[in-house]
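User: Hello, can you help with two protein structures?

Assistant: Certainly.
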Amino acid sequence: VQLQASGGGLVQAGSSLRLSCATSGYMFQSGSIGWFRQAPGKEREFVAHISGIRGTTTYADSVKGRFTISRDNAKNTVTLQMDSLKIEDSAIYYCVRQAHNYGIQSLDSYADWGQGTLVTVSS
């Protein structure tokens, strides 16, 4: 199983970025995917989640209304559209596969963490 996040970069506050998560090696269509992020010196935190079958989405309060998670089952990819970016959104972003049911915001629910992609938002 492999998940690879891409699309990060350096942008100004208020702008947008689109992150992609390419997956392989498992039944993507029925699997749930989460996005997490980790800023320097901080703990890894939940950002967004999309379920496998119905595509139900859940967001952290800090990104609700600004970020949109979606999936393309034909391409085995998940996208995180990030709008109205803030300096505090700067972090390494990871897409991960939900492997257990300890709560969608719990790190313990996820497996196959990849390298992540760096997002830097400047003023």
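That covers the first. Now for the second protein you mentioned:
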Amino acid sequence: VQLQASGGGFVQAGASLRLSCAASGGTFSSLIMGWFRQAPGKEREFVGFISRTGGSTFHTDSVKGRFAISRDNAKNTAYLQMNSLKPEDTAVYYCAAGVRTVSTQDRDYDYWGRGTLVTVSS
């Protein structure tokens, strides 16, 4: 499975961005999709996940109410809608896919895409 994240950019605080993660080489609907991020000088952290059907999502507390994960299995693509962006959201964002179970732990994801940089200025 190959994952390609896109949609990052430079925005002002309060703006919105939508990241996309296109998957290929596997059965997308069998994959649990997760988003992680890594800010400069910090460890990678969990952002959220979405179940195979999209019926279940979970987001870390720092983004709840602002970010939303979704997926379109017909397009083999997962999304991360980010609203009300803050400077502390600045990070490289990674999408990941897992075959076992939903998880907040990066070790439970089997496939990773290259990240896309999101920079939020104050």
